[in-house]
Design brief:
The chain is mostly helical and 207 residues long. It has helices spanning 22-46, 48-51, 56-61, 71-89, 101-111, 114-127, 174-177, 181-188, 194-205; strands at residues 132-138, 144-150, 161-167. Helices cover 50% and strands 10% of the residues. Strands 2-1-3 form a three-stranded antiparallel β-sheet. A hairpin with a 5-residue loop joins strand 1 (132-138) and strand 2. It starts with 21 loop residues before the first helix and ends with a helix. The chain binds manganese (III) ion (MN3).
Length: 207
């Protein structure tokens, strides 16, 4: 096992303007996301046989199987790597609007309406104390749920299938929004790639 790789973004660094500024997207991907990856790959070098043939999602789903002396580091760095893979793919310059099909139906069933789901997800993201994420997940009963989680903790480690996250670490928004986290969270819905979230939802249902 030689290590994991940094996925390139499915859009240009300036493509999410004006919702998320070019410099923020570029630094977030080439510095922050890459730093999690590099530190994860340092752990792979220490325990190549443990990581051999496993996706990071598989590992984070069973944190108790991670060798004890690197467990917290894998949760932090591997979580950071996986969470950013998901975050960047959840955004698109052609995003926004609302989901369709089965995901839209299930959102109505679970939350009453799409707007109510947005409100709850926004509250989770804005209300996450310190760094972390607001999440739309599928729980073990295959129901949609909104959660928040600190730092780089992956919902996979607490029994959820992640569908969508909103990164509320300051590095995700500070250059443009400074301390105005609610403004960033409100704006990001204009670039959410609901087709991708719907695809992830269908996959998670079949797991
Ligand atoms: Mn981030």
């Amino acid at each position: 096992m030689t290590g994991y790789t940094l996925p390139s973004l499915p859009y240009a660094y300036n493509a999410l303007e004006p919702i998320i500024d070019t410099q923020t997207v570029e630094i977030h991907h080439t510095k922050h996301h890459k730093a999690y990856l590099d530190k994860l790959n340092d752990l792979v070098k220490r325990y190549p046989s443990f990581f051999e043939g496993k996706s990071i999602e598989e590992i984070l789903s069973q944190p108790e199987t991670i060798p004890a002396d690197i467990r917290q580091d894998v949760i932090n760095q591997g979580g950071g790597y996986a969470n950013h893979n998901l975050y960047f793919c959840s955004l698109s310059p052609n995003g926004g609007g609302a989901p369709h099909g089965k995901l839209a139906e299930e959102i109505n069933k679970a939350f009453g309406s799409f707007d109510r789901m947005k409100q709850l997800l926004s509250e989770a993201a804005v209300g996450q104390f310190g760094s972390g994420y607001g999440w739309l997940v599928l729980n073990d009963k295959k129901e949609l749920q909104i959660i928040k989680a600190p730092n780089q903790e992956s919902p996979l480690s607490t029994g959820y299938q992640p569908l969508l996250n909103i990164d509320v670490w300051e590095h995700a928004y500070y250059l443009k929004y400074q301390n105005r986290r609610p403004e960033y969270v409100s704006a990001i819905f204009d670039v959410i790639n609901w087709d991708e979230v719907e695809h992830r939802y269908e996959e998670a249902l079949n797991k």
